[in-house]
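Why does residue order matter? Because the sequence determines the fold. Keep that principle in mind as you read this record.
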Amino acid sequence: MLNDYLPSGFFRKPLLVLGVILSFCITAFAQQQLTVSGKVTNNKGEALPGASVNIKGSSSTVLTNNNGEFAISCYSNSILIFSYSGFEPQEISVNNATSLDVQLLEAQGVLSEVVVTALGVERKSSQVTYATQKVTGSELTKVAETNFINTISGKVSGVSIYRNASGVGGSAKVLIRGNKSAQGNNQPLYVINGVPMSNFASESINQSFSSFDGGDGISNLNPNDIESINVLKGASAAALYGSRAANGVILITTKKGKSGISTIDFSSSFSMDRAAYLPEFQSSFGQTAPGSEESWGEAITNAPDNISGFFKTGKTWINSIALSSGNENMRTYLSYSHTKGNGILEDNKLTRHNLSIRETAKFLKDKLSIDANLNIISQHMHNPPMSGFQATQLYGLYSFPRGLNMEPYKNFEIFDSVRNVGTQNWPFITASNQNPYWVANRNLFDNKRNRTMVNLVAKYDITDWLNLQLRGNMDKTNDVNTRKYYVGTAVAYGGPNGGYNLLNRTLTEYYGDAILNASKSFDKISLNVLVGSSITDTRTNGESAGSTLLYIPNVFTIQNMNPLNGGYASSLSDGRQQLQAVFGSANITYNNWLSLDVTGRNDWSSNLSFTPNGSYFYPSAGLSVLLQEALKLPEVISYAKLRGSYAMVGNTVPLYVTNPQNYLDGRGNVSFNNKAPFTDLKPEKTKSLEVGAEIQLFRNQFSVDFTYYKTNTINQFFSIAVPPGTGYSLRYINGGDIQNSGVEVTLGYTSLPGTLLRWNSAVNFSTNKNVIKRLATEVEQFVLTSDINNYYSILKVGGSYGDLFGQVVKRDEKGRVVVDADGKPVIQSGSPAFVGNSNPKFKIGFNNNFRYKNFLLSFLVDGSFGGKVMSLSEQVFDGLGISKASGEARLNGGVKVNGVTEGTETSVTTVDARKWYQTVGGIQHATGEYMYDATNARMREISLGYAIPATVLKSGFFKSVKFSLVGRNLVYLYKKAPFDPDIIFSNGNGYSGVEILSLPATRSFGFNLNVIF
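Structure:
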């Protein structure tokens, strides 16, 4: 029931929303409507034809005529924004005026543009010495997603986003400039309005929940609340955030009320999802023998299609309403959104409620500014699909013998009259193979998440050049995960009476900082200095329990568990870690063209307790030069900046590795620690060098942003075996040097405002090369992932992060396949062989926005080029004899090879299909034979919309109405792999580039509606 997972009193909030809506409606009707006319000129009094006149907070826009004249209908308290390419925009309050003449001043290019940087500090773009890239909020909602972070894919150079194959609302893995840490976290830090937030997934809590994906921290947010996103890509950009920002920062700025205008913004999006492709199976040969789950039998005709009808049409609704109002002293923003989604698998559902309130106010003659923000999130994910061979609907669906009809098994449950319970209707019950309809309806997985984020900022202007800012934040998340296995489920999950797993975990993060900020100009020198201190305190606690043996059938409570035989019950170890820091930065600008930026930060991490290295310091320095201010450049160059920076960022280690302790297991037994204390542990550090250039041409119509970077992450920590007799099995050591280097280029074009067809375009190009320069002295290789059907991800000196290893077919010195005397291919013995790397050579995104009169068109084409990926699904399909390749081989008389019989020179040209595929795809698991080109390109997004003209709306109740048809992932322009390489098995290190019975990628189409009152 809804009440079960909504916060206490949640239904009081919609009443509050309704009350505010009514008050806003009354205010809106009370506003006077009028027509404002006038003329727009430059500072010489010359008319500016084609200048844009926009009502702030609305899409209502008119252009000036050839004489610079305009007329626009608006409210008496509206704010008009006047803009023209090459000139500074100007905002003017109407204040009942019906005539306005406006003079625009020539802009200084990007000189006046403000960029949000680390700690939420605003800097002029000309003073920023490192690469950063902005994504507007409209880009996040143009084609809506349940996890909005997926919508920035292809829109920011140097950023790779991989979607977890866990259905609607699933998490995503985000990498900025490649993987850096062998055992640490490689994802960026997310920051909301300058305050770091926790980002986690409900996985790896214990073995029972190891593959459960309840969505990461960022996926819970409402994208309609976001004003913009700034991506700080390198260590220089993120150095002030410290340890957690070693992999870059994604800065999120949320919306707040606007002065002088009251609006109600309603958005609704609907999308339908269909499987973009399905595996290809043979339909020529049937079941091997009665009772067998393999399909190496006799030839068949008219094989039924048991698969395509299993996948549903997913449907997702996202409805959001936001209320905004304010004056010079107080501004209010209130929003509520409701997300309801059904995945393409049966009974996979998502329901999410988001309530956000942001209040900003000024006191004490505008010296004191208060910014308070509250976010309440309630989410329920039901039956997210599992990847892998265990507890998945897809194994039983795909492996069902060819030629048999699954229709009788759609009635997944049969009644056991002896026990008076239902049981599974399926002939092949194993840990992997269960009735897919049974799994959907009788293996029930649920994640209920309640999350509260509270943020308070107080800023006091001591003088006109000095201010003090205090911030405090609490981010509290409670996850309740359950798994219910009904009677009849495979014994690996449930005994004679079923099985049950429960996890109740709460993660709370407190953050606070104090920052003294000074900004002063002395003749030709401008100085911006800040000093501050911060503290982050993270706490985790909870309980877990599970049992494959229940006392009473299908009663899923802790009291019904047998904790001794096949069960456990325990409290999660209370985890607490704290990071304290002091930091400072200084930006010195000379004569508006030369800027020096330096930062320094010192951290004290509780995770480094029991070592002499608990405190660590790291600096950064950067320089930027505005060439057009320092030199006489051709008139065609509007703006030119060179920048360079060097930084070092520290990174702490996981909790409790420096002094491991004995502990109680789930049955109350003492488990003795087998890891040696790591008392000389050093913090991981990333050193980063970055140089770049930014150029704008032809009055800022064309832009180029180029960056070269190189990072080296050292002092990695590794676990190695300890000699017998020490009392330990493992110990940690420091070492390693993982290097990433690459190039990022962004090309932009913006048409002049006076043209009838408006076009904004950006091309994002990035390439990253990862090299393992060094491992620890005692470590020849480090295995990230191993023993999944002989798949391995291994770090070796000279290799790269993302190297894949597997067993391969043996070949002689001439490259011929070696076949044994029985006619079976021989599998190469010894260590697994290198078979490819999952990282792309380069990535390209091409994003476009067109406007012709009131018609809007946007599309994004992006691609990833190079790299290899592995499909363990195809391996399994081959072994079972259900794959298209195994069927074609039988029709062709066998597998054609250039081979030789082992120990002889007898040539072999054909291998029996069953012997070949049951060897490489069956028990031998020759994973190296299942590598595919990862190159892919697609139409990622497309939107075609229409905005009702202001002349039609006039000064009525509606300020703006827009409707658009949207699509996502509609067409693959190029793809050779049998699965989508953007979808990964898990967010963990070492799982990129491998697919294991993952949910098919989907193509989506639907509509968006946006109405502003």
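Residues 1-30, 201-211 have pLDDT under 50 and may be disordered.
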